Amino acid sequence: MERVTIQTTSDRYDVLVGKGLINDLITLLETVSPSKVLIVTDSVVDQYFGDEVLQKVSEHFHALKYVVKSGEESKSFEAYYDIQTFALQNEFDRKSALIALGGGVIGDLAGFVAATFMRGIPFIQVPTTLLAHDSAVGGKVAINHPEGKNMIGAFYQPIGVIYDINYLATLPADEFRSGFAEVVKHSFIRNEELYQFLLENVPTLENVSDTVLQKMIIEGIKVKAEVVSEDEKELGVREILNFGHTLGHAIEAELGYGKISHGDGVAIGMLFALSLSKQLLNEELPYEQLKQWFKQLGFPTKVPDELSTEQLINRMKRDKKSLSNKIKMILLQSIGVTTSKVFTSDQLESYLNEWRQEE
Prior knowledge:
Layout: E1 2-7, E2 12-18, H1 22-30, E3 37-42, H2 43-58, E4 63-68, H3 77-89, E5 97-102, H4 104-116, E6 123-127, H5 132-135, E7 140-145, E8 148-155, E9 160-164, H6 173-190, H7 192-201, H8 210-230, H9 245-255, H10 262-280, H11 287-297, H12 309-317, E10 326-334, E11 337-344, H13 345-358
Parallel strand pairs: 2-9, 3-4, 3-5, 5-6, 6-9
Antiparallel strand pairs: 1-2, 7-8, 10-11
Helix pairs in contact: 3-4, 6-7, 6-8, 6-10, 9-10, 9-12, 10-11, 12-13
């Protein structure tokens, strides 16, 4: 088991990564002595691990489980409201605690419930996906709105993250690939050594060894921890975590949430951002290498044909990071060194059209 400590201006907590960590979950719960524990999970994760976690927690605390439908569609106001109703009807109180057992959707949804139920109760992230190595760390919790992804939410830190890699064994290939995109993102923005490690050790996403898996999770979390410790509420340097996300989120939203995985959208977004970076900042950046590697790994490498550039630009203008109809892009000066550049919608539309024609 390995430990990474997350230090923010508001809190400090540990991320534990390893195998067989259920006892560590109980130990962490004991630090807050909850009156009741609500386990929030989704229908797929519940089939594999829901009863196991409920049984173990119930040996020590009064615990109940709430299951939402699997998928991005559950990161909604309706699901958020239903969980709040369930907690109130079952007489959860301010001394209750919540466990988010699942991937990024569950972490964001359940975390937002925890942040707002009785004005805030303790919660623990128990990730079951590779993607959640990013979303489970840093305290951003939210639900989606038809007008944009993660538009309604809060900054609310968990009391800890228990990352048992045994829970990743049942992960479908497309979900594993989705999470891997965020590992690549972390390597690009802060850790060239990790990028080289991934290139050498992950030629395909089949049969990734436990040793490689644990290292990529730990190194990705360390990057996230470093950035979050400097900027908890995305007022400055934390925006670099959005590398690939400006276009990626627009693709997700325009296709309809759940029609493309988050990681596949981010992969397309990273390729576009790297292409811009190569064109505007550093012609030595490995754009072609990344493109070929992504193809080898099964990522899409171009914007879906059914989406127009105009649609995507209009969506990006509504991004939380955009101001006065100008769109901010996180770019790379070199691997591990980021910068940002603001584009008018016309400028970015021209660059995006040009890139799509090349693809």
